[in-house]
Amino acid sequence: MSTDQITGAGLDQTTTTPAAPPEGTTGKPVGEVSQTQLMIRRFKQSKLAVVALFILALLYLTAIFAPFLATNDPVQINQAYKYAAPTPLTWSGGPAMCTVTQEIDPINITTTYVKDCSNPIRLQFFGQGYEYKLLGLIPTSRHLLVAPEGEAKLYLFGADGNGRDIYSRTLYGGRVSLTIGVLGVAIATVLGSIMGTWSGYAGGRTDNLIQRVIEIITAIPTLPLWATMAAVLPQDTSVTERFFLMSVILSLVAWTGLARQLRGKVMGYVRSDYVSAAKSAGAKAPRIIATHLLPNSASHIVAVAMLAIPAAIIAETTLSFLGIGMTEPAISWGVLLKDASRIDVLQQYPWVLLPALFVIVAITCFQLLGDGVRDAVDPYS
């Protein structure tokens, strides 16, 4: 650091010139990190949350490209492969499958499948299969891995009671089960944020009315409420219409918890100086809520929404499993697990329970991701 002594009028004045920043640095103030960067750093510290995010990304990619990854048409019925076991795989200069022969046990009146790996069938990568539209736009019949056309069927997860491929149906089922949870929570988050913030800000009769409505909804047993709402849906509704109606039904129950939590936070915010200053400046209630209250509650809203997605997925799976949610011809994880409700079927054909593994993985990953997001949105804790 250089110092120049300037003497004049009997006074010594010292002028200090700051030193140049060290070579290789940008010269920016040390420690200047944005809120977003702090949140990303905090999230990366949770290794489990990062792994969960990666697995969920894979699940959603498999749901998006389900037709390309599927080995068979998920709706094709083939009684010759009723409850067929998972196809035995082998290696014969590349991935191959053993041939399977169906036999009827005359004593137990059951269907058995005998494998023969003496003459394996080579599997084809990017081979021809059933026709579909990739991303709903591009007509094609190419699939990642299929058996040669005209040869035995490839059932990686086995087949259900109608001879349909469980693996292909599981991939397609992820489209409904993974999406309906996110859509239902999105609707519930918007509704809960509006009602909770307005309740805490308005107070008085408005607050009392909203809180009484919340108490009535939370006092009703959840499963009978879902069952009643699902039962009143017209039976002739299409798969798409039933999907959106189920999303609305799930959101009508899920918004109350977030609304009550936000009410408590907003009641503390309304006494803050910045809210008082906004009122003094003539700001109206909608502007104060949108500009000040909701942004300050955003971190809590995001954390609650992430932790609510697993509950919505479980709710859809449960309702579909009971036959009051998504129904045939829709394909969801809950619909696929209906076969597993029969003990005799589950004992003889345990592979019908394989879609449950996807439910468990998805729920666990969403919970781990929610914990990571909850910590990341408050990096100063």
UniProtKB/TrEMBL annotation:
The keyword Transport applies. Residues 1-31 are annotated as: Disordered. The chain crosses the membrane at residues 48-70, 178-201, 213-233, 239-258, 293-313, 319-337, 349-369. Residues 14-27 have a biased composition (Low complexity). Keywords: Membrane, Transmembrane, Transmembrane helix, Transport. It is a multi-pass membrane protein. Residues 174-370 form the ABC transmembrane type-1 domain. Its main location: membrane. It is found in: Cell membrane; Membrane. InterPro entries: MetI-like, MetI-like_sf, OppC_N. The keyword Membrane applies. Pfam families: BPD_transp_1 (PF00528), OppC_N (PF12911). Belongs to the binding-protein-dependent transport system permease family. This is ABC transporter permease. It comes from Microlunatus aurantiacus.
